[in-house]
Amino acid sequence: MPAYDDLMAFQRITEALSAVAGRTGWDQETVMPRGSAPQRAEEMAALEEVLHARRTDPRLGDWLREAHAADEVADANLRELRRSYERNQKVPARLAAEIARVTSLAQGQWAEARASEDAAAFRPVLAEVVRLRREEAAHLGGNGDPYDALMQDYEPGGSAAEMAAMFDAMRPRLVALRERALAGEPAPKLSGHFPKDDQLALAAEIAEAFGYDFQRGRIDLAVHPFSSGSGIDVRITTRVDESDPFNCLYSTIHEVGHACYEQGVVADHLLTPIGRGVSMGVHESQSRSYENQMGRSEAFCHWLYGRMRDRFGDIGVASERDFYRAVNAVHHGYIRTEADELQYNLHVMLRFDLERALIRGALEVDDLEGAWNDRFQADFGVSVDKPSNGFMQDVHWSVGLMGYFPTYSLGNLYAGCLMAGVRRDVPDLDAALAKGDPSAATGWLNTQLQQYGALRSPVETIRHATGEAPSAEPLLTYLEQKFGDLYP
Ligand code: ZN
């Protein structure tokens, strides 16, 4: 057999085992009995050992040297396999094991220190994580910013300099828009009791309307909403707060966006390296298009207002317009995950600049809290009152996920580009959204982007879908129009 066929046959088993590991993780977060944890840890470790051996198998190097791509698909599969193989070759096994050990401990220490507002207890372990990630970046090499090396795991081809240039251009316009919104009339608030079963039934109805296929997926409850799996088994989770139905509904739409990308990849790519979303940024562009650009649009809110009154009766807001304003309320807040569409990007930019400085050695962990608080004051006009509202709010740094944050804003930026394309090609989209029907837009996203999986690089994926190079302008124009109208 030619080397390419041998390689793909070997990889198919790795992909299948990796899918099993993912589903085991899903099980752990959803339905696993509490008492099963110690056995599960051993099961997961065993699977990881098998996967690690396959990913570093010496035959991979031989096959990758000998394999030739006969077409575009083979070329893309080889590109994905080479990247992960070369990465594994560059990082010494000792360092990879040390990172796994320290970050799994650090996550627990972060959770404990955050609960007791004890920044001093968190600093030493975070300093250790930063030291290890700096060392890893040095092994991964490259001749620019060491942050670039870490970003490749989440956004292949991305660079810190490009990201910084985009963010620096966005920041003043977002700060100005934010000040305008906060000076305006506060948005109305929902009131009432929203029973769990009704929320879940409505969430399932909306998930189906957005194209989530329940024949190849399911929704369960978990502490943190997530999407898991690819191909023909893609599951999502949601959560319910009986006083805040938006929590369940919008996190469901968000995860449906991620899941539809995975479910939408053509069957030919199933269990191959390109049979999944190409990057975190492109993935997030799908979830943000579904959740924000469509789910929080005025047209869709009109439909949702009617459905919510059917199901919950009086919800405390008097008109469709007030409901739309409630969905898109801009208010002061410290927490990224609770931020509105407008301020969210400012939260991300703050983290990007700080973690980039940490990895480069321009900032030390001892000075991180001060740097965070100064920047928060500058961008949000408020001083941080406690570490859990400040630099200790997110899990990411404790688990070593430096380089991940910018993909959230990149997702918003790409969503801006994609939805500008949708609006160009589907001019009557709002009329359909007002009937609770996003299918013309989700169909466009599937045809133009989702079906290809990781066939093209992230930037080429967006360019192929829209016909243009990605830029921040469509997102900024969209936000200025939307929030300019909401906060005149
Ligand atoms: Zn997401």
Question: Top keywords for this entry?
Answer:
single chain, 488 residues, mainly alpha, three-stranded mixed β-sheet, 20 helices, 64% helix, 2% strand, globular, binds zinc ion
Question: Could you explain the architecture of this structure?
Answer:
The chain is mainly alpha-helical. The protein has helices at 3-30, 37-55, 58-66, 72-90, 93-115, 119-140, 146-151, 160-183, 196-209, 245-264, 280-294, 298-312, 320-327, 344-360, 368-380, 406-425, 429-433, 439-448, 458-466, 473-486, and strands spanning 219-221, 227-228, 235-238. Strands 1-3-2 form a 3-stranded mixed beta sheet. A hairpin with a 6-residue loop joins strand 2 and strand 3. Helix 9 runs parallel beside helix 10 (245-264). The longest helix has 28 residues, at 3-30. The radius of gyration is 23 Å and the shape is globular. The model has no long low-confidence stretch (mean pLDDT 96).
